[in-house]
Amino acid sequence: MDENTTTIMAALATLPPHQLSNLTHSIFSETLRRRRRLAALLSSQTLFSLSLRRLHSLSLHDKTLLIARHLLSSLRLLTTTTITTNNIPPIKARDSDAVLLLLHLCEVRQHNPAALETTPFEWRATLRGLYADTLLSFGTGIGVHNGSLLVPYIETVARCLRFVTGERKVGGDVAAAVSTVVALPSAVASGGAECAICREEMRGGREVCELPCRHLFHWRCVLPWLKKRNTCPCCRFQLPTDDVFGEIQRLWEVLIKMISTSGGGVGMKE
């Protein structure tokens, strides 16, 4: 078990039983959906050929971005965020098929490299035969709340994370998501406190911006700040971002915080 897998498992271990049960059920549903779609790809010569052609047309950078978007959807499920954001568009159907096939090819190459020594034209029959056993072993959902169901899902997340961070450095300043900034609430300043950006007093009775971490700022100060950074100037709390790699980093840090926070949850709501 690698470091990323261990980190995710440790984070999920902090969840109360009912939350873990709900998460396991959600992961089962998502895993079943993905497996059914992959089975359809391997059963149809047309779908398989289109997906394989799509992969061949993508550069390494585009493949990295594809896996990053797939990883992001998995991390959102694992972190069970309480703010629903649609700032990053969902993966298109053809790209979803392509990334499912790509991940399956990677898994087969790792565990059974000889299976791919034939020509790509012959891959479908080989992959379909290898996949049949794993699909049957997945079962019908009996015992869905068994924690062992999480392991293969988490291992896939960890593999995607290794690839994404290996191909592109995650980190640096990114802007807060526009949809998140627009939804930020106003609060009434009580007076006496100062804005951490301009260092001027926030006059009592004046409307100011309140971030999810409860820190207050002048609107005129915080808006330009959030156009460049998705962090609170006071505590570095991270808001959602439209940057795929920045959002992966943000959600990964949510998982880290789950480990360090007692009581089985994140200390601050997303």
From TrEMBL:
Organism placement in taxonomy: Eukaryota, Viridiplantae, Streptophyta, Embryophyta, Tracheophyta
Keyword annotations: Metal-binding, Zinc, Zinc-finger
Source domain of life: Eukaryota
SUPFAM superfamilies, alphabetized: RING/U-box
Enzyme class: transferase
GO MF annotations in UniProt: ubiquitin protein ligase activity; zinc ion binding
Domain RING-type span(s) in chain numbering: 195-236
GO CC term (a single one): cytoplasm
Gene3D superfamilies cross-referenced by the UniProt entry: Zinc/RING finger domain, C3HC4 (zinc finger)
PANTHER family: E3 UBIQUITIN-PROTEIN LIGASE PRAJA (PTHR15710), E3 UBIQUITIN-PROTEIN LIGASE SGR9, AMYLOPLASTIC (PTHR15710:SF67)
Alphabetized InterPro entries for the sequence: Znf_RING, Znf_RING/FYVE/PHD
GO annotation, biological process: protein ubiquitination
Organism whose genome encodes this protein: Parasponia andersonii
Keyword Cytoplasm on entry: no
Catalytic activity line of the entry: S-ubiquitinyl-[E2 ubiquitin-conjugating enzyme]-L-cysteine + [acceptor protein]-L-lysine = [E2 ubiquitin-conjugating enzyme]-L-cysteine + N(6)-ubiquitinyl-[acceptor protein]-L-lysine
Name this polypeptide is given: RING-type E3 ubiquitin transferase
The protein's Enzyme Commission number: 2.3.2.27
